[in-house]
Amino acid sequence: MTSGPREIVTPFRPIPLEVPEGMKPNEFFNSTENLNDLVNNNGLLQNQEGLLLYRKALGHSNDFDCSIIYNTSRSILDPLGRPVRRTQVPDQVKNVWNRMNQIIIEYMLEHYPDPDAHLVLAGEASLDATWPLTSPGVPSIRMLHNHFITFDKAALRAAPIADASNPNLTDGGQHSLFQAHMRDVYRAFFDGLDLQILKPCESGACRLALTGYPQGLPSWEIQGGAGALKEVRFWKEYDTILKGFIDFYRTFFTQVSTRNAPLPRDINFPELVEDKLQFDNDFLKAAKMVRDRCIKDAKYANSIRWQPAFKQLIYRNDEGKLIVTISQNSIGNAITELLGVVVNRRPDADAYGQAETGLIERLLEVRRRLVEADLGEGITTPHWGAA
Fewer beta carbons within 10 Å, N or C terminal of the chain? Predict the structure, then answer.
C-alpha cells in the first residue's frame, strides 16, 4: 500500500439559500439569517447553554459528520465579539459542551470499533479574525464549532493520492514555521506543561500508515482511552494543550511584530514562557527571520495570521489508541487535512440521497443519547421530528 495523503470526493445536496444582492457569501453565512437556516433545516438538538448540534450540509463525510456550534448569533450580533475557542467559553457552557463531546465520541468508537475499517476524529479550529480581511479564506461562521467525522478506510485506500504540495495540507512536517525552525524549542515548551492523562507520543508513533499524517506535530496519547474522556481532568488537560499553544503563538508573533517585546498580556503560563521562550536564541532568531521577511515582502506579511490560529483534534490511530494533536491553522484548509485527508465537495443531490438515510439514522441515535443525558432537546425540521 502506498502511503500518502488521499483526496476523496464527497457529494452534497446544494443548499437552497440565496445570498442577498450586494453581500459576499462569507458575509451572509456569518449572519443570523443563515444560522436560522442551519437550525431549521439541519438542526438536531439545542440546549439552554446555546449549544446547537447539527448535520453538516456541506459535509466532509456522508458516513458520519456533524458539528456542535456555540450559537451566539442572537446574543452577540458583532461577529468579531463572539467566543471562538474553548478558553473563551463560560465554564457552565464548557462543562455541557465537554459532556456532549464525550458522548458523541463514545458513540463513534462504539459504532465504528475497528481502526482498520474507519478513521474516527473529532476536533475544532480557530474561527476568529486571524485571516487578512481580503482573503477568500475568511471564516464563514465566526462562532466556536467543532466537528465529529468518520471516514471509511476502504474508500480512503481506493482514493487517489493528493498533491503533496496542496497548500491545504498544512502540517508540521511540511509547512509549519514552528516545526521547521523551532522544533526543539516547541517540544521543550510543551514538555513543561502539567499533564498526567496525556502522554507525549514518540516521533512518528501516532502517524496513520495510510496517509503518513500527521507529520511532525506534537501529539499525546490519551492514557485510559475513551474512558478518560469521562474524567474532568482530561478536558482540563485538553484545554492546557490549547492554552500552551496560544501562549507559544502569541509570544512568537509578538516578537515578530516588535523586537524584544515584553510578555503578552493575559498569558496563561508566564513563568514557562519566560524560561523556555523569551531567553531562547533559536526562538528569537526565528522571530527575526520572519520579521525581516515581513518588512521586505508585502505578500508574505499579508499572509501572516498574527493572532493565535489553531486546529486541535482527537483521533484514533492504527493501534486503536486515542491521540490528541494540535497544529497551526492556515487559510482555507480543513481539519481533516491534519490527518492527510483532502475532501473535494461536489454538488450531487442523487449521490447524497443514497447515503442520507443511513447518515440521519446515526445522527438521530446520537441525539437520542444526548437527550437522555439531559444535554438538550430535539429539533423538528422538514427531514426529522423532535423525538
Answer: N
Cα–Cα distance for residue pair 29/302, rounded to 1 Å: 24
Pick the closest to residue 339 from 128, 153, 200 (CA basis). 153
Express each pLDDT in 224-273 by its tens digit: 999 999 999 999 999 999 999 999 999 999 999 999 999 999 999 999 99
| SS3 assignment, position 26 | helix
**DSSP structure class, residue 225:** G
CA distance 90 to 241: 18
Taking the C-alpha atoms of residue 365 and residue 88, their distance in angstroms, rounded to an integer, is 30
* 100 sits in which H/E element: helix 91-111
pLDDT in tens, 177-196: 787 788 889 999 999 999 99
Q: Which of 311, 291, 276 is nearest to 184 (CA)?
A: 276
Low-confidence ranges of the chain (pLDDT < 70): 25-27, 29-31, 127-141, 167, 170-175, 330-333
Interatomic CA distance for residues 282 and 84, integer angstroms: 31
Q: Kindly tell me the sign of the dihedral angle through the C-alpha atoms of 97, 100, 104, 105.
A: positive
pLDDT of residue 120: 98
User: Grid coordinates representing 112?
Assistant: 465504528
Alpha-carbon gap, residue 315 to 219, rounded angstroms: 10
Q: Which amino acid is at 209?
A: A
Length of the chain: 387
Query: Nearest-CA neighbor of 18 among 4, 10, 29?
Result: 29
